[in-house]
Write a structure and sequence with these properties.
single chain; alpha/beta; Rbsml_bgen_MeTrfase_EMG1/NEP1
Length: 288
């Protein structure tokens, strides 16, 4: 006897969960984790051509560690004061343009963005690229003072970047790396199992050191300070967390920021703002 149609069970709705690299999340089931990650990869890779994947893999070869001299590695010790950078509202968004997935930017995808009722001026991944390069290239990082670097996108995706990673110098290669990262959720070092970049679970506050001082930057802040004088007044044992906006326009709004300051009477780019911060800290710690 055939079962009546009305008796047929309803399909279960899958709960939409945040997608991130779950390797270190001990509370998640290992089998469920692998299935979800494979599903995400299949969904994203469905329109990616072999040439796109080859370009991304080629760009990944540039991820070589930045050497740190042996006598300066004490900066990575937990008991040594360190610095954390958080880039907020970064424009790092992947979309299917034509037959392949690409990292959206205002220069190459202006027509695509306009057709989808989006403002091309807001899609500036080059700002994040310049900011990341300024942080990782700084003598402050090479001296081992940078504890961590986090990037949070406009869509709320949180990315962790290891301080010793070498980000590609050209934007095209950087875009390939970000495309690969947002597809695979992590990128490992060549020939090693260490993950140099990975998508992690929100919020960023759970990764920040306890009792750290969280400082945000905005030109609209009424508290105008000289950066050298500001860091000079901070206790040498304190861990500083600097939150900088990586967008073209607007203001960062994060409830975990304790102090909003302005370091110039003129609007500054994210890259130059970071340069002022690192220069002030390098002078304070005697890093030449």
């Amino acid at each position: 006897m055939v079962r009546p149609y009305a008796v047929k069970g309803h399909k279960r709705k899958k709960n939409k969960k945040e997608i991130y690299d779950k390797e270190e999340d001990e509370q998640e089931n290992v089998e469920q984790e692998s299935e979800e990650e494979e599903g995400v990869q299949k969904k994203l890779k469905s329109g990616v051509t072999e040439s796109d994947e080859e370009k991304a893999e080629e760009a990944a070869q540039e991820l070589v560690g930045i050497p740190v001299s042996l006598n300066e590695k004490q900066g990575n010790d937990k008991n040594t004061p360190s610095v954390v950078f958080v880039l907020e509202k970064a424009s790092l968004e992947v979309a299917k343009v034509g037959k392949s997935y690409q990292l959206l930017n205002s220069e190459d995808h202006a027509n695509f963005l306009k057709k989808n009722n989006r403002n091309p001026a807001e899609y500036r991944p080059d700002i994040s690229h310049q900011a990341i390069l300024n942080i990782l290239d700084s003598p402050l990082n090479k001296a081992g003072k940078l504890k961590a670097l986090y990037v949070r996108t406009e869509k709320g995706v949180l990315i962790e970047i290891k301080p010793h990673v070498r980000i590609p110098r050209t934007f095209k290669r950087f875009a390939g790396i970000m495309l690969q990262l947002l597809q695979k959720l992590s990128i490992s070092a060549v020939g090693k199992r260490e993950k140099l970049l990975r998508v992690i679970k929100n919020p960023v506050t759970q990764y920040l050191p306890v009792n750290s001082r969280k400082i945000g930057f905005s030109h609209s802040s009424e508290k105008l300070v000289d950066m050298h004088d500001y860091v000079a007044t901070v206790d040498n044992d304190a861990t500083l967390v600097f939150v900088v906006g990586a967008m073209a326009h607007g203001k960062i709004e994060c409830d975990y920021i304790e102090d909003f300051i302005s370091i110039s009477g003129y609007p500054l780019s994210a890259a130059y703002c970071i340069t002022r911060i690192t220069n002030a800290l390098e002078r304070k710690h005697g890093i030449v």
